[in-house]
Amino acid sequence: MFFFEHLKTRVKKMNNLIQSDISLKSYNTFGVDVLARRFVQIENRQQLLQIYNEGYFNDNFLILGGGSNMLFTKDYEGLLIKIALKGIHNTIQQNFVFVTAQGGEIWNDLVWHCVSNNFPGLENMALIPGTVGASPVQNIGAYGSELMHIFYSCVAFDTRTGQFVTFAKEDCEFSYRDSVFKSKHKNRYIIVEVTYKLNLDAPLNTSYGAIEKELSNRQISNPTIKDIAEVVSYIRVEKLPDPSTVGNAGSFFKNPIISKNILDRLIVDFPEIVYYNVDEEHVKLAAGWLIEQCGWKGKKLGRAGVWHNQALVLINADNASGEEIYNLSSTILNDVYQKFGIRLEREVNIL
């Protein structure tokens, strides 16, 4: 009798945990109104084990952090898992600090946690949308800083085995806006915790042109970590729309990396092309400049559009569907290829 009562209690808990037909409009920064047939919010690790033991990972599922790198083009028919794990703690060892944050923490909150404690390393990535758990998946970066340079390790839940696994930096196979979590291990692991290794003696990175210009405008010659974070935040706000008022996912396209031989050919026809050196053989083109040269900056296609201050950003201009935004991106990809012979890649995940 006790066994059956225990079983009924367990099933009831799962029924309370899993919700049905939940609107995702408030869970994606594009503000696209689609449904998740099943939805669960994870607030502790035990809930992941619970879902695993009930067999939910045997069917289609999707991991959702802040919904800032996602474009839904239709209802999601599987189980959508929202990671809401919270907590940050620090461990100082000699000249380094190891900052460990739970996967559901908002990335910008972590940045300002480090800034307020005078821990350098994250300030150039202030105001990047999303959560801590998504940061290694995308290998985020901005204004001359890359996550892979400060990443130490992460703990992830293996949805195939039901085990929690630790990934060291070399296990993640980081490259430009990519990792094993986005490629060969896509949708297998759920990142529940990330540890960053920050050098307390690291010099501040002010080499990015926009940062130097704004520091000069503010007459700051010896910037602090806080100065850099505030300047980067100001620059991003100037260029990017607030998702709470204009639906967007930040940069929609990757900046393409090409060989210097290809650049030499492009410069003949486009002498003002914007690029940044990557190494001795490669450069990174400014995708926003390419899109702008195709006449898309500030333009709309139906209810979707391109932000007037930054051509890299696609917006939900008037309650657009995900399909409309996707069709706009496809038109832009085609126009850039026709004009420059460059194939842009979407940075945003399409579902």
UniProtKB/TrEMBL annotation:
Keywords assigned: Cell cycle, Cell division, Cell shape, Cell wall biogenesis/degradation, Cytoplasm, FAD, Flavoprotein, NADP, Oxidoreductase, Peptidoglycan synthesis
Pathways per UniProt: Cell wall biogenesis; peptidoglycan biosynthesis
E.C. designation(s): 1.3.1.98
GO biological process: cell division; cell wall organization; peptidoglycan biosynthetic process; regulation of cell shape
Required co-factors: FAD
GO molecular function: FAD binding; UDP-N-acetylmuramate dehydrogenase activity
UniProt-annotated catalytic positions: 177, 251 (proton donor), 347
Domain FAD-binding PCMH-type span(s) in chain numbering: 32-201
Annotated Pfam families: FAD_binding_4 (PF01565), MurB_C (PF02873)
Domain of life assignment: Bacteria
Predominant localisation class: cytoplasm
Enzyme class name: oxidoreductase
PROSITE patterns in the cross-refs: FAD_PCMH (PS51387)
The reaction(s) this protein catalyses: UDP-N-acetyl-alpha-D-muramate + NADP(+) = UDP-N-acetyl-3-O-(1-carboxyvinyl)-alpha-D-glucosamine + NADPH + H(+)
Compartments, as annotated in UniProt: Cytoplasm
InterPro entries: FAD-bd_PCMH, FAD-bd_PCMH-like_sf, FAD-bd_PCMH_sub1, FAD-bd_PCMH_sub2, MurB, MurB_C, MurB_C_sf, Oxid_FAD_bind_N
Entry GO CC: cytosol
Known role: Cell wall formation.
HAMAP family documented for this protein: MurB
Family: Belongs to the MurB family.
Name assigned to this protein: UDP-N-acetylenolpyruvoylglucosamine reductase
Organism name: Sphingobacterium spiritivorum ATCC 33861
Origin organism lineage: Bacteria, Pseudomonadati, Bacteroidota, Sphingobacteriia, Sphingobacteriales
Gene name linked to the record: murB
